[in-house]
Structures are given as structure tokens and as C-alpha cells.
Amino acid sequence: MKRKVLFYFFVLLCSMPATAQIQVVAALCENKVNPMGVGTSGIHFGWELESATTNQYQTAYQLVIASTAENLGRKQFDVFNSNKVVSSQSTMINFTGPALMPAHTYYWKVGVWDKKGKRITWSAAQQFTTGLFTTGDWLNAKWIGYETLADSLRTAPAIHAPFADSLGNKCLQRPVVPMFRKQFAIGKKLQSATLFITGLGQYEVSINGAKVGKAFLAPGWTYFDKTVLYNTYDVTSQLQQGKNAIGALVGNGFYNINRERYFKIVSAFGMPQMICRLQIEYADGSTENIVSDESWKTAPSPITFSSIYGGEDYDAQLEQFGWNTNVFDDSKWKNALAVKAPLGKLLPEQDYPVVLTDSFLPQKIWRTDTGFYVYDLGQNISGIVQLKIKGKKGKTVKLVPAELVKSNGTANQDASGDPFYFTYTLRSNEEEIWQPRFTYYGFRYVQVEGALPDTVANPDNLPIITGLNSLHNRNANPQNGSFACSNALFNRIYTLINWAIKSNMQSVVTDCPHREKLSWLEQDYLMGAGIHYNYDIYSLYRQLVNDLIDAQYEQGFVPDIAPEFVVFDGGFLDSPEWGSSAVILPWLLYNWYGDTAIVQKAYPMMEKYVAYLESKSNNHILTHGLGDWFDYGPKEPGEAQLTPKALTATAIYYYDVSLLGKMADVLHYTQAANALRQQALAIKQSFNHTFFNPTTKVYATGSQTAMAMPLHVGLVDESNTKAVLQNLVDSIYAGNKALTAGDIGFHFLVKALDDGGASQLLYDMNNRDDVPGYGFQLKKGATALTESWPALENVSNNHLMLGHIMEWLYSGLAGIGQEDSSTGYKIIKIRPQPVGDITAANGSFHTPYGWVSTSWTKNENGFALQTQIPVNTTANIYVPATATSSIFVNGKKKNDVPIKDNAAIVTTGSGKYLIEVK
Questions:
Q1: Which residues have CB under 8 Å from 93's CB, separation 6+?
Q2: What residues does each domain of the chain span?
Q3: Helix axis angle, 596-616 to 538-551, nearest 10°
Q4: Phi, psi at residue 611, to the nearest 5°?
Q5: How many Cα atoms occupy the beta-carbon half-sphere of 856 within 13 Å?
Q6: Per-residue pLDDT tens digits for 316-356
Q7: Cα(309)–Cα(106) distance, integer angstroms
Q8: What is the pLDDT of residues 680-725, one digit of tens each?
Q9: Residue 726 and residue 708: Cα distance in Å, rounded?
Q10: Topology at the third CATH level for domain 21-130
Q11: I want to staple 253 with a disulfide (CB 3.0 to 4.6 A). Which of 51, 202, 277, 479 is the partner?
């Protein structure tokens, strides 16, 4: 049967039309389709191409921009016309035209020439809308609120929970969660309408009663004293002739966290407040602007309590129907207060919004000895509860979400933040539907108090739950890849890690969706590739770099979290393995996307950070920090001990200096690049003198981390690489192939074994459930990655760290990556590694040039790989082979294919290929 599939694939290839033609299938501005809120300068364009022929590429392009759609259609390119540019570049095209106007929509398209110099059809018309960047751009819009916070009560940065009692009367007040509204009229024919708006800490906005956009917990989280993000929406279709109304609901988020229920930190940057500008353009060319000021009306909402850490209470009896429509009487509402603007600069949010996506229904329901009912929703997620309930007006139901349940079946929040809960008070005797607005939690179970399922007897006439499900929230960035193989356990591991990624991919990358919700920085680069293979994180990681710039201290160090809502102590404030995201993230954005602009922007931060690490070093050795967090290295006499902190700190310091040197080369900072190379060499020499035993070829304690980090970052001299790798491999086999590397080290262990051709060992270490690891977690019932290899009950059961094997599932088993000499996947590397009992695997990955896919099978007759390579790229395809193997490409035998390290290397251009090894 497999042979028939391969035959039909080959027939399909042969039947493709032979015309050399390129089509523009996607055109992007700032890596998004028709984005809003982009800059007025420094913009980047890109496009993806497809062709029915192989080895197709672009030889030239023409990019044009017009001020109106009509002008673009009439070929009146009154903003910009690049004319013909002879270049194969189709990503990160820097806009070189004049500075653009704020709050304006521009229209553009691109045409390309193929490899034969033939002009191809233009792309479809595209557009982008610029944002607001100066105070004047807001046209006198004011920050407005329901109440103000006394300066003496301001608490920023936040205070860590153990020290909250020292705050006196600070952070005790429960803020009003206010509603704001503004009514206005439209008397002329409407052309377009654009809304610029934000609310702190979070907001929802509606026009004429209908929500604007799909965002949940907007805007994205930043440190509000440095940066405040706003959102831009096209609301043309939501306006109407005559009366209109804007309604906004503003919650607390991280802006105000009071000392009720559970809190990781407490803060009071201010009370909930908002600002907006609605720009209305009429068909006659005139413009009108509705801005926030004291003429707006405000009142308390039915949300009586809201905390990002503690939950949310809603009293439906306080609802004012139609409050956000154009027929509501707001004469009893008070005028909004003009309040102090936050200290941070207002900037457009250019990342995708957080949205509510998947929904899960109950799999089981049981009654506890305490009389509560617990719903098992089957999947541990980041999210909220959606409730359908019917009962007596004024009755209140309490919902307690939890990751785990105790031995008596009740909700267990011991490791996830206790107490967190939702309450809902009914407004009527009819069925009602409700879900929280401004908080979320990590949970699988929901404990219900004060209500019953509709399937049980109800002698006490309690409210009846007619429906209860969970709603998952995550960043709405597009899916970037897929993976599957013939090994069921590895497929389950993929799903396990993917749920941890989705649950912690918010407007920042969080560690967990419940107890902390903080952006601990080490995971951003350690898990970076694993996240990147699954989701388009270009916009998310650009924002993370901005957070890092905001967080950097005057001394030069970058703290362990960013946004730095709270200042921690010791290694939790300044650990090189965490702060090094300041250097590694800009490099990843360059390596993955070819983004030199973010390297340029971040360079002063990176330079200052590396200088700080140098100042902290002694003979180029660093000794401070957290080391290999959650290292499970063996501690028995005679066995390898835990990894020294100085080794991980110094290794990452060397890595920072090496990467900064490469980025200096990218920016043509020749003198700096040469100096950084000399600095890296000095660190390497000192590192090897301190930690390497030249006789045994072992680093420090010989732990998995101690051996793997030097291998991957380049600290091992070439003459010793083979011996060090072999010692690492031998030690793991001698240790029963158990995982012992921690949060820092496991990433480097995966990379070192993958790069060193030891994927069979990675398979052996992870294709099991008898020792702590992924299979062990799954056997214990985990549905998302846990915080520790043994899946302990006293740790988070939905945690991002330790998911580093995800990268190998794509780069190793599916075999998708890029060559070391490549940037932005211009030169693709296809290198599937059939190991263990795996007989088939497939993967797909969306590069800046388009989709790459692989699908391979292995049987007694040999090995077969189907792959697709995007237009405008080349690929080196490595398939397992020996000197006696016969290699066929699209059915034709190839006699000149080189064989190296037990792999045949087939070099191709774009197209679809069937490669067989017999």
C-alpha cells in the first residue's frame, strides 16, 4: 500500500504544468496581513510565493503604495514606488519611502519577476493602518476614570506576597470596575472609522452593544511606568447613521492587585482608567473625532471583585440593560473624572491579541463528602469557566477551578494559588449565561458550591447548572507547524508540551497560568524554538525584546522577569541564565526571520548587559545566579553531582558574547565584533582551565548539563569534541538513560545530542514511562507539561519549562530546520532521523518563505521521503544511506549523490520531491 502511495505521488509530480510561473500567495506588512497600528517609518514588507515548477525563485520585485484604494487600482502610486528592484529578497524588505502620516490607512501590492526574468501578476491589493505616536496624535483625548488613587497609596513596582503585611493600608482598597459610555451622532455618509483605545489594567469595548474585536485581557501586559499598549480597530461596519454609543468596561489586570484572596504580588499603579480616540472619515472627505474626556459618563459595573490572581465576582442583579447601546438613559450616571496619565509611553500593540479559543465539556461529575459537585473537563488549560444556570434571583454560586483534586475528590489549589474562585449571583428566575472578563486560571476541574447539576435531585431548591464548560485563552498567533509519528508515546508527548505552550503563550510568555503568571526569561530562549515550530511568534518576541529594554537596570543587568512587575531578591533578581534572554532573543529573531532592525534596536541593551556580566566576572568566570533550576542529577557517592552554578553562568556568558559578536558583524560594527571575538576566546580559555579535565575529558561534575552546555555553545575545543560527546553518551547509558538535566541544562542536552548524531539516545531517554520524564508524567495522568520531571503534586501541573524535546520532534524526527549558514530559512535543512521503533513521521513548518513539509517511511525495502520546499529557497536534504545504497529523486536514479556520515545529501531548489533510498 505504501508503495502505491509513493507511486501516485510521483505521477502527480510528473503531471504538474511545466510553465515557469510564480504566484504571490501572501503579502505581509510587519509580518501580518493587513495590520493596524503599525509605525510611520521603519516598516517591513514581505511576501510568499508559490509555483507549480521546481527550482523556482524570484529575480526582481516592485513594491508600490498608494494613499487610497482607488489610487492603487488606477496605478497612481502617490506614496511610494520602488520601481524594479533586482533582488531575490522577499522577506524583511525595509520601507525606504517618506515618513507616513499617523492614523491613516495605506494600500499596497507587490509584483515579482521569476527566475527567467518573466514579469508575473501582481499580488492582491493589501492595506495597513498606522498608529498614534505622539501626545498630539491623540487630539486632546484624556485618561478618564471612575475614581482616583491617592499618591500616598501608589504601590509600584509591586510587592511580593510575603512582604504584603508591611504595606499598612496600601493595596487594601477594592477598586470599582467601571463602565464608561459616550453617545454621539453620525449625520453624513460614512467612509471609514478607526478606534484607538486602551484601558488599564484590561478593558473590553463595544459599539452599539456589540463587542469590538475578539480580544480577551487587552491590552498586552507591560510595565506601565515604561510602556502602555493601545489597540487599533476598524469599526466602520459597527457604526450607523444617527445615534451611536461607545461602551467600555475596565478591569484591574496587573495595574491594581489588592490584598484579597490569593495574590502572588500586590500593586497599585492607579485605579482602572481608559483613553480613546475614534476617528470617523466621511465620504465627503471631512473628518470627525470622538475622544475620551469628562463628557463621558461612568458607573460601577456588576463586577464587584476582579483580580488577575484571585478570581472574579459578578452580581447580575446590578446589571443595567442596554448600558452600551444608543437607547440607554445615562442621566443617573456621573461624569467621568480626568485622571493622571500613566507614566509609560503610549505605543500600539502589534502582537496578536489573546483570545478565547477551545472549549471543553465535562467528562465526569461527582459529589464530594462535603456536598459539593466537581466537574472534570478532561484537559488542563489556561482559561475561564462558562456557566449556564437557572435558579432563584439573588442566589449565589461559587466556582473553584483546580488542576488537581485531593484524595477526597475536592478541588486542590495547594500548588496553583489558593484561594482563587468565581462567584455569580443570579438576576432572575430564568436561565442565565455568564463568564468572567478580567482574570483566568490554570485548571482541569471545577468545584461547584451552592448549585447542583441538572441531573440530580434538588430537595433544597438550589440553582441548577444547565451547562458548564471551560474556555481556553491564548495568544491568537497563527499555527506554524504540525508533527506526528508512528510512535504513540511521542505523539502524546507532543500534545502534552503543546498544551503547556498554548496555556502560557499570552501577551507575554508566562511560566504558569495560575500561581505566578510571570514572564520568567530563561524559558523564552530555552523553549523558543519549540514554541516557534508550532506558532508564529514574530510579533510576540519583538514585544518581549521591548519588555527587556524597559526592564534593564542602570547597572546593566536584566532581571529574571520582564515585564518586571515586582522586584525579587538574589538570584531571582539577577541570574545570567535568565537575563541572557536580552542577547539571545534578538539573535533568534534575526536567525528565524532575518530581522536586523530588532538587532539594531536592542544592540545598546545587549552591549550594556554583556559589559555588566564582564564586570561581575572574576578571571572571566561568573559565579552568581540560580544555576540549572530543577536539576535532578544523581547525588549518590561516586556518581555525578549537581551542576556547579559557575559552569552554567559562565557558559551562558560565553554564549552571549559569541552571539553579540555575530550580531555586531550583521550591523557591520567591525571593531566591536573583533573585540567580542577576543573576549569570547578569553572566556573559553578560562572556562576550560577551570572546569575541564583534559585527562578524563569531563567537565566539572560530569552531569548531563555540565557536559552538554559546553558542547552546544562552542566551549569545547574541536580536538576534544568527539571524546566529550562520547563521555556524555556513555554516562547517560550508565545512568539507566534517565533524565537528570534541569530547566537550563535539558535544552542544551537535547541540542548537543541532536547535533552530535545521538538521536537514538534521545529516543531511548524519552520512549519510556518508568523514570521521571514525559512518559512518567503522562502515566500519572498529566494532560499538560508539569513543573518537575516526577510530576509532583506540590508543583504546577501546567508549566512551560522542560518542554525542550519539542524542538527535536521537528528538527530530528520530522527533520525540518535550516543550515547553520542560513538566516530566515533561506537554506533549508531536511534531516529526518529514523530511530528506535519509529517507522514513519511527518511534519510541517511555516517559514518566512512559505510551508516546508516532510513525510517519511521506513521499511524492509528502504527509506522514502516526500518533502516540499518553498519558492525562493534551496534545501540540503539528508537521508539515511550507505555507500551501497541506490538513491532515486522523483523516480530517477541519481548516481552523483554524495554520502557523508551515513547520509546521502541531495541539494535542491523549491518544489515537491520524492526521495527514495533502496
A1: 44, 45, 46, 61, 63
A2: 21-130, 135-351, 355-475, 481-814, 827-917
A3: 40
A4: -65, -35
A5: 30
A6: 999 999 999 999 999 999 999 999 999 999 999 999 999 99
A7: 41
A8: 999 999 999 999 999 999 999 999 999 999 999 999 999 999 999 9
A9: 11
A10: Immunoglobulin-like (2.60.40)
A11: 202
